[in-house]
């Protein structure tokens, strides 16, 4: 746009310089005709610049509309993908729900069978969660790391070094390398 304005100014300056030359040759061309020609050229240049400006404004509006459509479309795709992932996880958990219903319907007299059934459901739940990317954060024999652990208590223990994890109070978990809940731990401070 600036380039077109510069060109228009250069042409205008050349036209003014040409008017001076033609004014010196008044015998060849009347002064009124050269002024009319210069005004006509300027009007044409203005029309051309106005048309270019209008075209660029329309292009900007089209680009803004395209961007808005793109933003809406990607938002919708993100929601659909989230729904598909949620459906997959819930589908994997349906057998767990079935097993819990069976366990609750079992006779209350057989406590050992009930205990075994609950253990099987727990194992099945761990497998489903692991299949969907859940990993347990290990604390046994590890040093305290604030990226993975949350220290809730400091204890003295001569058998361990400073910043060793003395005890895990609550398990922590990650999903595909990202911590979703840090492990709550006791940390040695001698």
UniProtKB/TrEMBL annotation:
Coiled coil: none annotated. The lineage of its organism: Bacteria, Bacillati, Bacillota, Negativicutes, Selenomonadales. Keywords: Chaperone, Cytoplasm, Stress response. Residues 1-45 are annotated as: Disordered. Residues 1-19 have a biased composition (Acidic residues). Gene3D superfamilies: 3.90.20.20, Head domain of nucleotide exchange factor GrpE (2.30.22.10). This is Protein GrpE. The keyword Zinc does not apply. Its main location: cytoplasm.
């Amino acid at each position: 746009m600036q380039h077109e304005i510069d060109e228009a100014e250069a042409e205008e300056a050349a036209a003014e310089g040409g008017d001076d030359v033609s004014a010196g040759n008044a015998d060849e061309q009347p002064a009124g005709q050269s002024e009319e020609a210069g005004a006509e050229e300027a009007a044409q240049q203005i029309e051309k610049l106005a048309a270019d400006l209008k075209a660029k404004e329309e292009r900007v509006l089209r680009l803004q509309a395209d961007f808005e459509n793109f933003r809406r479309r990607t938002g919708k795709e993100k929601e659909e993908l989230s729904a598909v992932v949620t459906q997959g996880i819930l589908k994997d958990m349906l057998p767990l729900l079935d097993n819990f219903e069976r366990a609750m319907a079992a006779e209350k007299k057989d406590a050992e069978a009930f205990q075994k059934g609950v253990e099987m459901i727990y194992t099945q739940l761990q497998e489903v969660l692991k299949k969907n990317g859940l990993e347990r954060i290990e604390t046994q024999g590890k040093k305290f790391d604030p990226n993975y652990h949350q220290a809730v208590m400091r204890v003295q223990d001569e058998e361990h070094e400073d910043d060793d994890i003395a005890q895990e109070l609550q398990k922590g978990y990650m999903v595909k390398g990202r911590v979703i809940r840090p492990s709550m731990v006791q940390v040695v401070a001698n």
